[in-house]
Amino acid sequence: MNKIPLRYSGLTQLVDSSNLYLIILENMEKNRHIAIVCNDNVEHELSMRLAGKVNTTNWLPEVLCTLNPMMSYEHYEVLINGIVDGEYKVYLISKDDLSYTSIRASDAILLALVAKLEIYIEEKLFNQQSCAININKERVALPINALNSDMLNSALKRAIALEDYELASLIRDELNKRTSKDKA
């Protein structure tokens, strides 16, 4: 399995949403990125740490890292290796014994930033999910399969209201694909 190293690039609010954000991870060449959806709680946690104006030493991720000094890049890494129903499948992997623990994608990114862990994505998944970085645009591209069903339903309603029937058709197809997979 080939894997691509990623680095945290930024955080932006999802258009038409007051409580959803996108965590942007880019490859080392800084020419492609993926976006991971997070809620406003994770956005707050990330923003407080990145601003560096708040002492977070007694916040949960920092306390857990203090309790487990092995939680460092020498012993652990984060691996994104799949996507199912709009959610990335992410694992915290021990480099010592190759054991792994499933973790929510946004929490994995937060932990990786706190513990200074390396973040990787399987190459095939990155090639499927990543978008070219366009520094001249203010918007971030997001593959349709990276949205959960609630977000897709909301986007479908918006596309229909805007009479963007091509987009509505793509969203409907993704929803139908998920529904037929659930029935199988």
TrEMBL record:
Q: What is this protein called?
A: Excinuclease ABC subunit B
In this protein, which residues make up the domain named BFN? 3-133
Q: InterPro entries recorded for this chain?
A: BFN_sf, Bi_nuclease_dom
Write one Pfam family the protein is assigned to. Answer: BFN_dom
What organism does the UniProt record list as the source? Answer: Prevotella amnii DNF00058
Q: Which GO terms describe its molecular function?
A: nuclease activity
Domain of life per record:
Bacteria
Q: Which SUPFAM superfamilies match?
A: Hypothetical protein TM0160
